[in-house]
Amino acid sequence: MADGTLAGGAPGPVPANEQLTRALTIATDADRTEVYRALLTGSVLVPTRSSAGSPASGPTFLAAQAADGRQILLGFSSAEALRAWPGDARTCTVMTGTELARQARAAGVGGVALDVGGEHPLYLGPTELDQLADGLLPARPGQVRGSVTHATRQVRPSMARWPAGVVALVRDAAADPSVEHAYLFDLAYAGGEPSPAVGFRFGAGGRDAVDRVMVRLADGLRHAVPAGDRVDLVVLDDDLHDAVRGIVQPVA
User: Fold this and answer.
1) Is 10 in contact with 99 (CB distance < 8 Å)?
2) Cα torsion at 236, 241, 246, 250 (round to 10°)?
3) 137, 252, 143: which is closest to 195 by C-alpha?
4) Parallel, antiparallel, or unpaired: how do β-strands 195-202 and 232-235 relate?
5) For 10-19, how does the pLDDT look when each residue is reduced to its tens digit (9 = 90+)?
């Protein structure tokens, strides 16, 4: 992370993420792939305020309030985009999009808003940020959402009647050599209502294997799951894998 200054409201020499600026102009609710890529590979400007404590404690990020009352963090693709925001920030921190997602997760906020005040603002929710924080490309076509969950998760045995076609898709995805196990269960975030989830425990293959399996399955589920229904696709970290395998048997 690096600090930048907005002296007298005029942006200092802080870098722009032109890839993110372009991606925001074409993003839709169903397809945010280019925004995700720009965040994984580029930087964002995060408005800060001076801390009363020691400078060693790091910057204090300015938060905003979403329409539903939740606190969110802000990120901007360029100094010009930050200048369009009507807030009172005079300093900013430059960090990668992955770092911003990690900061949002650590702070427990309700999401991140990009380029607020501009022509193409975009809100990223916790499920998207969890994957970005782990350096993953979220799988989010249509109504099918991807997520990597952490402290806010709650899991239970699945109460859903999984259609045979969905189970077949999951078994097919689990046949990928990078997948160790696949599970069907219910998942809730931060005390919310549980919804069906498909969880994968990956072995070898790295991020490319994860993206390949998750995006392919999400595309299949888009046609197999009734419109308006939600299925979370979850990469199981060590803690979540322990929780899930303690209550359900693997599909494969």
Assistant:
1) no
2) 60
3) 143
4) parallel
5) 445 668 899 9
